[in-house]
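INFO batch 0412 | record 1 of 1 | parsing
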Amino acid sequence: MSIASNLRAVKVRIAEAAARSGRDPKDISLVAVSKGRSIDLIKEAAENGQLAFGENRAQELREKQGLLSADLEWHFVGHLQRNKVNMVVGKVKLIHSLDSEKLAEAVDRRARALGIVQEVLLQVNISEEETKHGVDREEIEGLLEKALAMDGLIIRGLMTIAPLVDDEEEARPYFRKLRELRDMLAENYPQADLNILSMGMTQDFEIAVEEGANMLRIGTAIFA
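INFO prediction complete | emitting tokens
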């Protein structure tokens, strides 16, 4: 299948999942995860209307941005090391993976040096897996409070990666937990704009939509 037909198929599945949960598919953003994908494939996706792309390596992001249209919207969706902050802050619309106070301080410092405000999501290790990055649920309020006091960044919501499971239905409780956590934080911190829920990948995005995701990070279903 072509990238054009893959994109159409993904959008149909998003619309069907939205309909099952009484949602408008127009409220759901699609980030095409282009890590490891060629410039030609990204161009093909862009020619078919996909303009938001996600990368998880700072060097690859920089190289691709230098070769592609400035009209594309870039997201950083991988673990961000503090020594790579200068390569990412100010270069992307949204960083999905803020997961510590030290990283928040580094992003804030770089953004203020550039005279910008960087949009970020707090990455939550909702499944409590030792192998996954993300702040623990018990520490999320402390990180949010620290980040809200920083002038160089703005928290837009939460991100998580569900466990890899045999049956996508098994991912549902984790997506539900993130939505419930977001709702609790939004109530407790009304000054925060936590409208984005970035959750759902190729193997589980329909379940994520049913549980409230409004930003999906999909790679294989588009590019494979």
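INFO post-check: The chain has one domain: 3-223.
INFO record closed
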